[in-house]
Design a protein that fits this description.
The chain has 288 residues and is an alpha+beta fold. The chain folds into 2 domains: 148 residues, no CATH class; 129 residues, no CATH class. Helix content is 55%, strand content 7%. The protein contains 14 helices and 4 strands. It has a 4-stranded antiparallel sheet with strand order 1-2-4-3. Strand 1 and strand 2 form a beta hairpin. The chain is elongated. The chain starts with a strand and ends with a helix.
Length: 288
């Protein structure tokens, strides 16, 4: 699955999964179904009301109706902030590459070039460009500087993934015995998602997010600093143990000296990842 990072005007970097050709093709078909059903329903209602029997009333009602139906995708994307009914149903959205909100001119550009991307080429031009371009953009997207993203990524961690951590990684001892009481299952699934994103895309934003998570977990465990987790279940944490036990081998001296940069693995953010991984493993051992 292709993905991209967008930096907003506030210098916040957001990671998105891009909608692929299958997603966008299915959304187009669903919108065509919605369009057909909606237009048929409206025409039926107008016929029952007798509007179509009068030439004057027919023009009064049908002309605006034709305009609305013809600009179906443009109007919905503009009014629903980058979504048509099918896009909303499938969790897709049009966004700008510069992080700003798309404007009417952006949506209008995308809509105008549907003539080339979709209708005149029977989808061949748009499909080829979506399938081969770096950011899965059709011609209208390229000219409007937009992309279509997935709001519901397909790699969200599940409970099975969390439980599998114990089987995949040998755990010889529990370092944080109060992890089971300090955190909920939902907390650990969120932590696993952040750790997964860091491992797949170790960019500056994900490293910062991972280190913020490490600080939150350390606070919940009653550890003053996750960089020096030299206690096993400090009494400061929720329902934590009153006994302090040294754990000098959790981070080597080299790791501690390079915190904020690379850990023992040489990868930036590696120390925070190791701490989060340990908390996750301890939670699984203690609760399963």
């Amino acid at each position: 699955m292709r993905s991209t990072d967008i930096r907003t005007a506030q210098q916040v970097q957001i990671h998105y999964q891009l909608a692929n050709l299958r997603d966008r093709g299915l959304a187009q078909l669903l919108d065509l179904v919605f369009w057909s059903v909606g237009s048929s329903l409206i025409m039926t209602i107008l016929g029952v009301l007798g509007v179509l029997r009068s030439e004057v009333l027919s023009w009064v009602f049908l002309l605006p109706l034709v305009v609305v139906l013809y600009t179906y995708s443009l109007l919905f994307e503009w009014l629903w902030r980058g979504q048509t009914p099918a896009k909303r149903l499938m969790g897709l959205q049009v966004v700008k590459l510069n992080g700003a909100d798309p404007g009417f001119s952006d949506y209008a550009t995308r809509w105008a070039f549907r003539l080339i991307d979709l209708w005149s080429s029977l989808g061949a031009v748009g499909g080829l460009l979506i399938g081969t371009s770096e950011r899965s953009q059709r011609l209208g997207d390229m000219l409007a500087d937009t992309i279509v993203v997935r709001l519901r990524p397909d790699n969200v961690p599940s409970l099975d993934r969390l439980l599998a951590m114990h089987a995949n990684d040998a755990v010889d001892r529990v370092r944080f015995p109060n992890a089971a009481l300090a955190f909920s299952e939902q907390d650990m699934l969120l932590a696993l998602q952040v750790l997964d994103r860091y491992r797949r895309f170790a960019n500056e934003a994900h490293i910062r997010l991972l280190e913020n998570l490490a600080e939150k977990l350390a606070s919940g465990l009653g550890i003053p600093d996750w960089r020096y987790p030299d206690v096993r279940g400090s009494g400061a944490g929720p329902a934590g143990s009153k006994t302090k036990q040294k754990d000098p081998d959790f981070l080597s001296q080299h790791d501690r000296n390079t915190v904020g940069g690379s850990g023992a693995s040489g990868k930036p953010g590696g120390n925070a990842a190791r701490f989060v991984q340990t908390v996750l493993q301890d939670y699984v051992v203690l609760t399963r």
